TrEMBL record:
<comment type="similarity">
    <text>Belongs to the D-isomer specific 2-hydroxyacid dehydrogenase family.</text>
</comment>
<dbReference type="Pfam" id="PF19304">
    <property type="entry name" value="PGDH_inter"/>
</dbReference>
<dbReference type="InterPro" id="IPR036291">
    <property type="entry name" value="NAD(P)-bd_dom_sf"/>
</dbReference>
<dbReference type="InterPro" id="IPR002912">
    <property type="entry name" value="ACT_dom"/>
</dbReference>
<keyword id="KW-0028">Amino-acid biosynthesis</keyword>
<comment type="function">
    <text>Catalyzes the reversible oxidation of 3-phospho-D-glycerate to 3-phosphonooxypyruvate, the first step of the phosphorylated L-serine biosynthesis pathway. Also catalyzes the reversible oxidation of 2-hydroxyglutarate to 2-oxoglutarate.</text>
</comment>
<dbReference type="InterPro" id="IPR045626">
    <property type="entry name" value="PGDH_ASB_dom"/>
</dbReference>
<protein>
    <recommendedName>
        <fullName>D-3-phosphoglycerate dehydrogenase</fullName>
        <ecNumber>1.1.1.95</ecNumber>
    </recommendedName>
</protein>
<dbReference type="InterPro" id="IPR006139">
    <property type="entry name" value="D-isomer_2_OHA_DH_cat_dom"/>
</dbReference>
<keyword id="KW-0718">Serine biosynthesis</keyword>
<dbReference type="GO" id="GO:0004617">
    <property type="term" value="F:phosphoglycerate dehydrogenase activity"/>
</dbReference>
<keyword id="KW-0520">NAD</keyword>
<dbReference type="GO" id="GO:0006564">
    <property type="term" value="P:L-serine biosynthetic process"/>
</dbReference>
<dbReference type="Pfam" id="PF02826">
    <property type="entry name" value="2-Hacid_dh_C"/>
</dbReference>
<feature type="domain" description="ACT">
    <location>
        <begin position="454"/>
        <end position="526"/>
    </location>
</feature>
<dbReference type="InterPro" id="IPR006140">
    <property type="entry name" value="D-isomer_DH_NAD-bd"/>
</dbReference>
<dbReference type="InterPro" id="IPR045865">
    <property type="entry name" value="ACT-like_dom_sf"/>
</dbReference>
């Protein structure tokens, strides 16, 4: 087991690797060219966030079986390239959450009490508090965007300071809000208008990148304190600077900057912005946790054992993998549809396996469904092993049932997602050599081969709607690959499922949504 460690990890992690019999090379100063020259010798590579694990590297990494990310975000790892080659990518999503939550509080205190500024004055031998009056937390309102692992740790800690906590997270169940004693805000603008302190804890996704921008600052209370200890750009930096200049934002504490690790951000010019160099996970405890966890996972993956945090692959015996592979793809595809079509928090997931599917190791397929379900909102933080734990911690009950026969198909999976008394359903099958088909969405019947880019629209079943869709997509330079219609004659509704060759812009989607008779239209990425 030859392991290359290309970025610094804790000594305890390195010791764990050697204790387990791995040959470890720690080469943290390699140039890119040198890395490409040596990577072919290794079965495992351990990185943090600076090493780009991409196609160029995979082509040279002919023996690579596992990439270990010592930390959480896997934005530096090409997941598709790894999956295609059967390389397991593991990360350590739980290991640094307490440290990240604690730095959030550290930044909050530092900003609210001007600690760095006062410290600097005194170190310059100036005993002067003038112009740097702080703000008490007690009685103030904290607005949390993203009530996941770190967001909820921050919430419980802030409560102990006598703060009122509100949060915006459309993907968390009401029960979870209730259990945490946090008031749910349905709209981000309502949170912005009510909080004295804003702290963001979402992953960086297409939806959250820039989620706090000019519009949100317009709705903010004057004198707001902003903390970003999640990912650069979740709070748009330009909008933040404008809000600071307009004194809408009084102070900010930022751990993550656009362009990092370069220290060139214009935010560094503001005296009332306290910054740290992405140090959220930089504690002895978190780094020990991360190092030991990544070492254990890399060793398990190399030995073909169960891997607790495999981001891209479940670990199954190779023979079972062969049969189940298409079902995992089907499961993930069905799961991925939900949050892209509906924006309601999930209470309940029911999975029904019929025909051949019922005879398989369905628990792994159910994990694939849950992984697919949560991925659009949680990104890399959900994997095959933590998927059911995530469901549980988010108050989602999951049930599985099986029937050995089906009516028309040899094998069938139906997913029912319950949300506030409503039920969303989707069914799919596999035929031939692992070809996937979506057969039904919310009672509308189809036979669709799911593709990377899809458009799904519900409409009044009347003449002209389909034609206008085609025209507007053409105008938006979107080529339609296939199109199918499902109808419900009882209530004169229909659903269109289109596969398209490219992404559909927000502008085109808005046009489509404006067609008379279109009730809802969504762009879905598989
Ligand atoms: N500064 C640092 O060194 C560290 C930063 N992080 C970052 O902290 C962030 C939070 O991490 P965790 O709490 O572990 O993640 P998590 O996955 O447990 O929670 C994220 C939450 O964001 C919510 N969310 C997703 N999209 C949303 C949207 N559009 N609007 C509102 N809420 C949305 C999800 O429902 C989920 O509850 C991540 O960006 C992570 O990369 C994590 C560790 C260290
Ligand atoms: O210190 C690190 O490696 C970055 C920590 C982090 O942001 C993460 O784990 O996502």
């Amino acid at each position: 087991m030859k392991v290359l460690v290309s970025e610094q990890i804790a000594q305890k992690g390195l010791e764990k690797l050697t204790e387990e019999g791995a040959v470890v090379d720690i080469k943290t100063t390699l140039t890119r060219q040198e890395l490409l020259e040596v990577i072919g010798d290794y079965e495992a590579l351990i990185v943090r966030s600076n090493t780009k694990v991409n196609e160029e590297l995979y082509q040279k990494a002919t023996r690579l079986k596992v990439v270990g990310r010592a930390g959480n975000g896997v934005d530096n790892i090409d997941m598709e390239g790894a999956t295609k080659r059967g390389i397991i990518v593991v990360n350590t999503p739980e290991s640094n959450v307490v440290s990240a939550a604690e730095l959030t509080l550290g930044l909050l205190f530092a900003t609210c009490r001007n600690i760095p500024q006062l410290h600097n004055r005194l170190k310059d031998r100036v005993w002067d508090r003038s112009g740097l009056k702080g703000m008490e937390l007690q009685g103030k309102t904290a607005g949390i965007v993203g009530l996941g692992r770190i967001g909820s740790l921050v919430a419980t800690r802030l409560k102990s300071f006598g703060m009122n906590i509100i949060a915006y997270d459309p993907y968390i169940s009401d029960t979870r809000f209730k259990n945490l004693g946090v008031e749910k805000k349905e709209k981000l603008a309502d949170l912005m208008g009510a909080c004295d302190i804003l702290t963001v804890h979402t992953p960086k996704t297409e939806e959250t990148y820039g989620i706090i921008g000019k519009e949100q600052f317009k709705a903010a209370k004057k004198g707001l304190t902003v903390i970003n200890c999640a990912r650069a750009g979740i709070v748009n930096e330009e909008a933040l600077m404008e809000a600071l200049q307009a004194k809408v934002v009084k102070r900010a504490g930022i751990d993550v900057l656009e362009g990092e690790p370069q220290a060139t951000s214009p935010l560094l010019e503001f005296d009332n912005v306290i910054v740290t160099p992405h140090a959220g996970a930089d504690t002895v405890e978190a780094q020990d946790n991360v190092g030991i966890t990544v070492a254990q996972e890399v060793i398990s993956a190399l030995r073909g054992e169960m891997v607790p945090n495999a981001v891209n692959l479940p670990t199954l015996p190779i023979q079972a993998m062969d049969t189940i592979k298409s079902y995992l793809r089907l499961g993930e595809t069905l799961g991925k549809m939900y949050y892209q079509l509906e924006k309601e928090a999930v209470d309940k997931v029911e999975i029904l396996y019929r025909g051949e599917a019922a005879a398989l190791e369905t628990s792994v397929i159910s994990l694939a469904i849950l992984k697919g379900l949560f991925e659009p909102v949680l990104k890399e933080r959900v994997n095959y092993v933590n998927a059911s734990l995530i469901a549980k911690s988010r108050g989602v009950t999951v049930t599985e049932s099986k029937e050995s026969t089906t009516n028309n198909y040899l094998t069938l999976i139906t997913l029912k997602v319950g949300s506030k008394g409503k039920v969303f359903t989707i069914s799919g099958t596999i035929f031939g050599k692992g070809e996937l088909r979506i057969l039904e969405i919310n009672g509308y019947e189809f036979d669709v081969n799911p593709m990377p880019y899809m458009l799904i629209a519900e409409n009044i079943d009347k003449p002209g709607v389909v034609g206008q869709m085609g025209t507007l997509l053409g105008a938006g330079k979107v080529n339609i690959a296939t199109m199918q219609l499902g109808r419900k004659t009882t209530d004169q509704r229909a659903m269109m499922v289109l596969t398209v060759d490219s992404e559909v812009s927000k502008e085109t989607l808005d046009f489509l949504g404006g067609i008379e008779g279109i009730l809802k239209v969504r762009f879905v990425k598989i």
